[in-house]
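Ops channel
N.P.: pipeline sanity check, posting one input/output pair.
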């Protein structure tokens, strides 16, 4: 959806990599994450400081093949025993409040790890009774777009992964710089370059950062340097942009326009309910802004029990609420598709009536 913007930026967001360059597994410098390109690390810090969405001081940055790889690296880091400790007898529970990002359960369990296992809803989890856990806190949340905090009861024996993929000013007001032990960000949702497969983790504890780096070493011996260099250039173009060509101004307006069209399309239609968000003060734009999530979390009302099948009959593809741990009366629909697909979607949605 941001393609038009990046076309306009032309050379400023392009790179050429000669055949002889960036051939080694290793990167320069003495950082814990030994395969991270320093240009990328610098641009990550620069952008966070500009946007004000995360504290970077005193943080180790770990780069990953998307934040997906970093999610697995973080599970490994929190659950793998230290050399001086014995293997824990039970896999640690990985939990998240409903509705949660549909990939978390499958990514957690697909290898049937002995270290961790999916534990479901974090709201009903009690750290004292149910044992150690890793809670995933996604804010703003995928699928419903609401801002979130940890919800586990008695949470002193837990670890937390803050998935902040959508904590950018085009999706939600930036109210303060996030300051967690471990947070994840991704190029996919910030600038739209999902295909570059670059994410980064901001990590307080050097031991955790080391274990995450070890996981990536075992998994893929590092992260594509070509991609890291491209990501660095893209982030640089965002930070360098003048007021007229500012990326977040553009992306905020595209999202605002889409949400407006969407609300108009279902206005007065008793079949559907949309989430309602209150505006908040955004320190980046220096004014109140409205949350405008990357996904529409839609509820089908009345008789319609299976909202995804109902929409499919009207040629709209969505993901059922069941995949997010809740009722099939809910569906998630992407708001980030191309302009053409989005307009088709709006047209089809507005033509549905009782
Ligand atoms: N976390 C959340 C909450 C997401 O929505 C997504 C993408 N759908 C990811 C992580 C994975 O993103 P990446 O492309 O960085 O692997």
């Amino acid at each position: 959806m941001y393609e038009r913007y990046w076309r306009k930026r032309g050379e400023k967001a392009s790179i050429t990599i000669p055949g002889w360059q960036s051939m080694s597994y290793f990167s320069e410098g003495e950082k814990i994450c030994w395969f991270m390109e320093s240009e990328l690390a610098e641009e990550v810090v620069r952008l966070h400081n500009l946007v004000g969405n995360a504290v970077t001081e005193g943080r180790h940055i770990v780069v990953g093949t998307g934040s997906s790889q970093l999610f697995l690296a973080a599970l490994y880091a929190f659950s793998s025993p230290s050399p001086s400790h014995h293997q824990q007898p039970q896999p640690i529970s990985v939990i998240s409040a409903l509705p949660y990002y549909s990939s978390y359960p499958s990514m957690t369990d697909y290898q049937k790890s002995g270290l961790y296992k999916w534990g479901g809803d974090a709201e009903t989890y009690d750290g004292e009774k149910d044992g150690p856990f890793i809670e995933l806190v996604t804010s703003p949340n995928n699928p419903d777009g609401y801002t979130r905090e940890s919800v586990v009861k008695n949470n002193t024996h837990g670890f937390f992964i803050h998935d902040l993929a959508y904590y950018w000013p085009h999706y939600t007001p930036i109210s303060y710089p996030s300051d967690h032990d471990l947070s994840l960000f991704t190029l996919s949702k910030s600038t739209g370059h999902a295909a570059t497969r670059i994410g980064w983790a901001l990590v307080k504890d050097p031991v955790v950062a080391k274990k995450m780096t070890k996981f990536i070493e075992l998994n893929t011996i590092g992260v594509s340097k070509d991609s890291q260099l491209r990501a660095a250039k893209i982030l640089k173009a965002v930070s360098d942009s003048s007021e007229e060509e500012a990326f977040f101004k553009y992306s905020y307006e595209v999202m605002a326009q889409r949400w407006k069209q969407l609300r108009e399309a279902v206005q007065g239609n008793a079949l559907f309910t949309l989430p309602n968000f209150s505006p908040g003060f955004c320190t980046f734009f220096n004014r109140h802004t409205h949350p405008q999530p990357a996904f529409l979390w839609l509820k089908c009302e009345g008789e319609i029990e299976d909202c995804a099948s109902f929409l499919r009959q009207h040629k709209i593809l969505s993901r059922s609420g069941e995949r997010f741990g809740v009722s099939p009366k809910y569906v998630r629909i992407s708001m980030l598709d191309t302009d053409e697909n989005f307009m088709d979607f709006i047209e089809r949605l507005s033509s549905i009536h009782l």
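N.P.: looks fine end to end. The pocket of 4'-deoxy-4'-aminopyridoxal-5'-phosphate is lined by residues 66-68, 101, 138, 142, 163, 165, 186, 188, 194, 199 (CB under 6 Å).
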